[in-house]
Design brief:
This protein is mostly helical. Helices cover 71% and strands 0% of the residues. The relative contact order is 0.16.
Length: 121
């Protein structure tokens, strides 16, 4: 019997499945909300790279830009030694949580989180 040969890149993922799941979920919510930002007339995407990709190829450019960001985060986490890879992943989750929250609130209320918080005070 021959040993099984695995191909591909063996990524040094953070050991915590909840961190990986959180990253994936927040990334997906942020991606969907960002796509909707380009469809509503009252909101604008602030990220110039995403906007550039949108201007080049439309909504698939938004998905492409978001996918590039996710791949960059995964690759950076791959090259960081433990425990910095997990700390970096937690940082990425927090950034995506803030971005996703802001985008969803912007889509629902028509105003960004900061303005919504200031108006509610």
């Amino acid at each position: 019997m021959q040993p099984a040969v695995t191909r591909g890149i063996a990524l040094n993922r953070p050991a915590s499945p909840p961190i990986r799941l959180s990253f994936g979920l927040f990334w997906l919510v942020d991606l969907v909300a960002t796509v909707f930002l380009f469809l509503v007339p009252y909101a604008t995407e602030l990220n110039p790279i995403t906007t550039h990709f949108y201007n080049l190829i439309g909504l698939p450019g938004v998905v492409l830009a978001g996918s590039i960001y996710a791949v960059a985060v995964v690759m950076i986490g791959h090259y960081l030694p433990k425990p910095y890879d997990a700390l970096f992943a937690v940082g990425a989750v927090l950034v995506y949580a803030v971005c996703a929250s802001n985008n969803v609130i912007l889509l629902m209320s028509g105003e960004p989180v900061v303005e919504t918080l200031i108006l509610s005070l």
